[in-house]
Amino acid sequence: MALKRKGTMHGGSPRILVVTPEITYLPPGMGNMANRMSAKAGGMADVSASLVSALFEEGADVHVALPHYRKMFHMDVGSLIDSELKRYKAKLPDSRIHLAQDRMFYYRDTVYSSYSEDNPKLALAFQREVINNIIPAVQPDLIHCNDWMTGLVPAAARRLGIPCLFTVHNIHTQEVTLERIENTGIDAAEFWQQLYFMRPPWNYEETRASNRVDLLASGIFASHYINTVSPTFLREIVEGMHDFVPPQIRQEMRGKFAAGCAEGILNAPDANYNPAVDDALPVRYDAATHVVGRRAAKRELQERLSLEVDDAAPILFWPSRLDPVQKGCQLLAEILYRTVAKYWDRKLQVVFVANGDYQRVFNDIVNFHNIHGRVAVASFDESLSRLGYAGSDFVLMPSRFEPCGLPQMVGVLYGSLPIVHDTGGLHDTVDHLDVAAGRGNGFAFKHDAAAALAWGIDEAMRFHALPAEDRAAQISRIMLESANRFTHQVCAKAYMEMYEHMLHRPLIV
Description:
six-stranded parallel β-sheet; elongated; single chain; 15 strands; alpha/beta
């Protein structure tokens, strides 16, 4: 679909500026698909890159603004960050890529710092360049911002009369004073009344040095529209289902939702997650040939991780970071040995390809019970993770909450069915399997509890006990349906429809 709006400043298709500070990293504890690649802790970078590419392919007049991480962009050809920039440039002309310049970016070898004070400095420097230089140069008709690191841009855009979409990927924020913002070189006096302060401001002078600005809440408050990265996560926040959401964030999202200016749009996995073209696999395969291809992948996975080599052994695969705050790994730790023992005669195996705090816990369980041939714990490796999707039978995602999630979508593309807690983006992407009716694509349990996860695993093992030809037919169906459902073309179309709504709805400045 081609974007249209009468009276654009460029005469043709509206010009969209996507502002994203993420290239390959997210701060620890953030992200939809943690450790998907060895140089990152989250998936927002891939989503941004793929969205920009898909929008461009759909004919949108799209531009992208990102920091000029000069050292990382000019690393060796094998560098993941360098390759990420190449992905943009492969789709977009150089004239559409706008790199924010500051020596603060130039010599970094990671996007985010382990020092908490560094990250607001980086975010403010990036936004200064976007507000002062990139927006005037691009002259966009619409701006699309992402997370707290771009939280000042919607207020500046509203002052300029430019509609702004603000995507909330993660409930994570920072607070800074107006004085600090202005000392960075951002003339916030022009739009300070569009920012969210931690207490009601009396006036500009009184609030400048003592009243902190919440960057995520400001982005939500000042934007024209907002979206989360799944419909259910938006509903959960609005309905107050998660106690970790700060009250000011919930309040502002509720306001946007009540005004009809909030939606949930599912992310999608990168297009190179495709077993028909994946170089990490010993045998490439598709929905018609998955039995042979997945058997070869299972054998290689078992050999690489020193597991018992057995084509019939069901494998549970853990692909996400081992973070007990979000990902639910403590639930699996509670039942791991009991589950392996319960299905010992069926030779159940469990594979972890993930980093995080609980890696040590799982290693201790394996060592204490001496179950090395049945359970393997490996640090994240991109090729091994891809092999895990192809060689496993089931993907484990018992997340406490999930803004979107990507591993459950990748799993079904490769024929590995997800076992998930029915929350957030997992609710929107996983339907409980009904073999008799020929519908569903995984196994969803309702409660955030170890017993509920055990039930989900039992359901999966019941499916695995079916005749091989029945399982193969269901997996073929699921792979075909998923290849049409979880694509960036679908995601880009949803964003373009939202842009259309925004461009035709009056903006109150």
